[in-house]
Amino acid sequence: MTTAAAERGRVAAGLRDGLARLVREPLGLAGLVIVAVIVASAVLADLVVPYDPIAINVRERIEAPSLAHPLGTDQLGRDTLSRVIMGGRVALHVALVSIGSALAVGLVLGMIAGFGPRWLDNALILGFDTVRSFPTVMFALAVVALVGPSLNTVILVIVVTSIPIYARVVRTQTLSLKGREFILAERAMGASGARILTLHVLPNVIGPLLILASMDIPGVIAFEAGLSFLGLGVKPPTPSWGSILNDGLALIRNTPG
């Protein structure tokens, strides 16, 4: 059996073992099902929403939950369930685009900082520390005040504040690999820095980075919802979980029906 085939076998065995443990844990399986349903509803939102999420129907405003409107309607008669589903798509879009962009840029900068000359490493670290020295919420408020609230503004804030986190993780991993025997052997054979980073460093640092990025997705969704709740995120009438909560808070003392 070749080395590649053996590696594929180990990966498949690990996946089967992880799936078996998940099935034996009811809470873990329930969590997986809930996450899968939310992601599927966000991806297929156009197909599963029962009503237009931004269509106004004043005659049916603030209705109680019913068969026609399982989650009721808001102050403009818009179906709440439809808006929640479409809000999930907005949250997933913000999370994937911002985390993906920050991960890509942080990966490149981190490898350059760890593998490059000392002066470049110091300059990049100074830039990372400068960005991270600002509280994320205060930085977001400053950016929104300058360019105005929008979906792109939220994504920009998340990308800028997340790049240093990923870059520092990659830099640390790169520094630990820089003195390894296989890296030194490649350099002795005249391999370029780009080849070493692409073929040897990247496969060894991408795993921990993907785990960190997956753990950051819930925080990014909550951050987007928080900005939208304050009116500093997604602009109306685009549905967002934060703006839906804000609308509900304003009418929390009103009895539906």
What does this molecule look like?
With 257 residues, this protein is mainly alpha-helical. It has a domain at 86-250: MetI-like fold. Helices cover 74% and strands 0% of the residues. It has ten helices and no strands. The radius of gyration is 23 Å and the shape is flat. The model has no long low-confidence stretch (mean pLDDT 83).
- What's the gyration radius in Å? 23 Å
Shape: flat
Tell me the CATH architecture of the domain at 86-250: Orthogonal Bundle
Number of E-state strands: 0
Give the quaternary arrangement of the chains.
Answer: single chain
- Topology as a string of helices (H) and strands (E): HHHHHHHHHH
Which spans of ≥5 residues are poorly predicted at pLDDT below 50? none
**The CATH superfamily title of the domain at 86-250:** MetI-like
Taking the sheet with the most strands, its summary is: none
Overall pLDDT level: 83
- Helix content bin: over 70%
Beta-strand percentage range: under 5%
Return the CATH topology of the domain at 86-250. Answer: MetI-like fold
Number of contiguous helices: 10
Spatial gap, N to C terminus: 69 Å
What structural class should be given to the helix and strand makeup?
mainly alpha
Q: CATH class of the domain at 86-250, please?
A: Mainly Alpha
